[in-house]
Amino acid sequence: MRIDNAASIGASKAVIAPEKALRPRLAASILLLDRSGGSVRVLVGRRSKKHVFMPDVHVFPGGRRDPGDHRIAFASDLPAALLDRLVGIYRGRLSVSAVRALALAAMRELHEETSLIVGPPCKPRFPAGLPFRPQLDRLRYVARALTPPGHVRRFDTHFFALFTDEVDLDLSGLQDSRELEDLRWVPVKDPSEVSIPDITARILEALHTRLDADPLLGFDGTVPYFHVRNGRPIRDLL
Q: Which of the pair, 225 or 150, is modelled with greater confidence?
């Protein structure tokens, strides 16, 4: 993953002139959820202090969608209803392959930043260089966030959630990377043990509310969309 980690949406204080406002780049993050204890915990990692952009805060694994992500071979697809939902958000401007690539990007970034593998191994490696074929059928869609104009980096980021006990996942392989250090599990209800960006806190608050209403996190749940309109923060529902 690059230093423009999409999970840091809206957290940077740096701004640019309006005439240089950037178009948001498509991005994806994954909320890996552990419900083996008394509460649901989510995996976060701290961005390296060496990064010039958003150093030393904890975020979800994730990053921008790469051009080759749509060519990644996958073991199982997103539910058809979710694919239709994502295509509908863009009113046909993105194809099924393009929106599927968001989920594949999230899985790729999870592996690059934590070494975790969600899916069966594959040989030889496929175009994206992954040693596995991502398993997408258990992903839930839980949030979307758009970085406001005026920031040095902007993302249109889609957040997916995955319960660790619903896939064949070897957590013993979890390890820090150059992009995310101090990987740890924090309670969705109270992530105060780490420093997180505001948007990350808002997404976790929304997820906690959804889990309270539906502990199984049904595939068709309402999704919050965080963005800014006329300078005011907006929380729409998708």
A: 225
